Amino acid sequence: MKKHNFYAGPAILPEEVKRKTSDSLIDFAGMGLSVMEISHRSPQWVACMENAFSLTSELLCIPDGYKVMFLTGGASSQFYMSAMNLLDESDVAGYINTGTWSAKSIKEAELFGKVKNVGSSKDDKYSYIPKKLDSEGVKYVHYTSNNTVFGTQFQELPDVDVPLVGDMSSDIFSREVDITRHDLIYCGAQKNMGPAGVTLVIVKESALGKVKRNIPTILDYRTHISKGSMFNTPPVLPIYISMLTMQWVKDNGGVKAMKLRNEAKAQLLYNEIDRNDLFNGFVAKEDRSMMNACFGLHDDSNQDAFLDMATEAGIVGIQGHRSVGGFRASMYNAMDIESVEVLVSVMKAFSEKYG
Ligand SMILES: *Cc1c(COP(=O)(O)O)cnc(C)c1O
User: How many C-beta atoms lie closer than 10 Å to residue 59's C-beta?
Assistant: First the structure.
């Protein structure tokens, strides 16, 4: 039976990407060797790397003055690496606390400088995006563009007049972004960009080299920029799969087309959550995420019955995050609307049986 993959991350990849990956594991670029067993200095690999850089720049319209890196360590490493490279001990960084991931990023930044809370939705279980922000005296404002755990998403960039640092792990390539408002953007690949193992970082070059501390060579962004992300052995397979995924995004109309596709999927599901008396959405309507919809049943005791019906229809990965409960349906770029249609039809069938 066809599976409908709603996992939050690691998450769905396009079928075509999986097939091409499968071929490259045996014979990469006609070399008779696997992509995993060739030198990263070989011309065939260097061409792949160049392709990954140019696709990133093209899809996200990255302007001059910005540099792209493919690093390891996940978005979690960027929590500290961003602060280490951008924040001096006497500086103040502004942080918007919209849940699990932002809270973790705040903890790490506090190791390197001062942190000011410029807005938080902690008072209401992270169910909304704070809009009144107090960014006075801060060097930059860090925000999490899409809150994978709680299902909220910034619909507009934070309204501040300092540069932004964005964790876009779960909505990169899902819509257009004004890069010029940012000093730094980072994302772990395993939600909307590829598999786990590579982290995309985009930095404004002029924001670097301003801190006084000594930075270990491999943690200094300038090292990776100067070596084209090949200072040490890059994670070739995750970069390769991410490159194929970006090519797929491009072939399917680019980021603009992804946004339309994602809006249609999200609208379909949220309409049913609002229409169906048995279900309720967890977050403020105007802040709902296009990527991760968090919702539940008014009557919790029916939770397992609904999961059973969903499983029978081929749906996987809709159990809510352990800290939130209920259900979470993640609808990243690679998901077809057909999968959301199946989920909605199960919700309708469920309400006929239990309503
Ligand atoms: C998943 C996620 C992270 C953590 O990513 P890792 O690559 O596992 O470190 C950070 N931020 C957001 C918004 C996420 O969704």
Answer: 19
The response to whether residue 101 sits with its C-beta less than 6 Å from ligand 1 reads: yes
> 152 CB under 6 A from ligand 1?
no
- For the chain, residues with pLDDT lower than 50 are none
Q: Is the distance from the beta carbon of residue 317 to the nearest atom of ligand 1 less than 6 Å?
A: no
Q: Give the active site residues.
A: 101, 167, 191
Which atom in ligand 1 lies closest to the alpha carbon of residue 149?
Answer: 15
Of the candidates 313, 333, 354, 348, the one whose C-alpha atom is nearest the C-alpha of residue 4 is 313
List the chain domain ranges.
15-251, 254-354
Question: CA nearest 169: which of 99, 256, 93?
Answer: 99
Are β-strands 146-147 and 152-153 bridged in parallel, bridged antiparallel, or unpaired?
Answer: antiparallel
Contact 112/80 with Cβ under 8 angstroms? yes
Residue pointed to by tokens 């799969």: 241
Pick the CATH number of 15-251 from 3.90.1140.10, 1.25.40.10, 3.40.50.300, 3.40.640.10: 3.40.640.10
Q: 189 C-alpha to center of ligand 1: Å? A: 9
pLDDT of residue 191: 98
* C-beta of residue 82 within 8 angstroms of C-beta of residue 199: no
Q: Give the class (CATH, top level) of 254-354.
A: alpha beta
- The verdict on the CB of residue 72 being under 6 Å from ligand 1 is no
Q: Residue 179's pLDDT is what?
A: 98
In whole angstroms, what is the distance from residue 236 CA to residue 197 CA?
9
